[in-house]
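How it folds:
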Amino acid sequence: MNNRFVPSPNAEADFLPRTPTAAVVTASYAPDLERCRLLCDTIDRYVSGVAHHYILVEHRDVALFRQLENNCRTIVDERDLLPRWLHAFDDPLSLFRRRIWLSLKTMPLRGWHVQQLRRIAISAHAGEDVLIFCDSDVAFLKPFDCSAFWRDGKVRLFRRDGVLSGDGHEEHRIWSRNAGSALGIEPSEVSTHDYISTLIAWRRETVTALCARIGKIHGRDWVEIVGAARKFSECMIYGRYVDDVLDGAGHFHGSEEFCRVHWTGEALSDDEFRRFVAAMAPQQVAIGMQSFIGTDVGRIRRLIGLD
């Protein structure tokens, strides 16, 4: 499979079509099937302005996820997105409970690494103008129109300005430096912006141009370059490409988050869950319950009125 991307002549143009098409993109895996089903149900109920929903999974999970497919939702096999030299195995070091992706061209990669690679690679598979990324442990609670992600022909780039200059963000700073290295940005050009959030949008043609740049600079497949460092963030790579390479062309910035996420800690009780939802900011339309926390999906369905 050839993963060397060639951008279209308009890949870095400033403006989208007058009415851009949008796709929601979700990377998932077998243990999150029911969470992903909940996401799909809430997208179908609350989200408008979406042409398609792509769910990206490992090859062995494709058959399981097919039950979520419909005319507007497609399950995408990672073998159709990523090079065949990247192989998934059960990891004996975890007593075969976890998966590991191995090759001679990258560091050993975990599932969260490969999910990020899939999100980048879908740009060559999809045909929509705008890709909206939504994790499988998210549920929409309010009506949301995807036109919130574009304005005057430009796409909204989530960015929290200057936060990496403060304490407690060392991992994010590493991700930012590695993004700069992959993109061929001079190490002296340090970014202090954070681009990581849930429910964000990218321009598809900008992603294909990003991949082409990485391949051209390094003379190797972009997957190989990104995967050579285990500490990377697809959001940092995209954000730094837009701001530091394109000087923001085709985008406007926004720092308000559309999804309220329970990142760490214990599973919430019913009352705590209700208080969490009640504390959503006015612009927030969805919640995220990190899957590793272990909140029961059936209980979430009941509490948001979908049981």
The chain has one domain: 22-303.
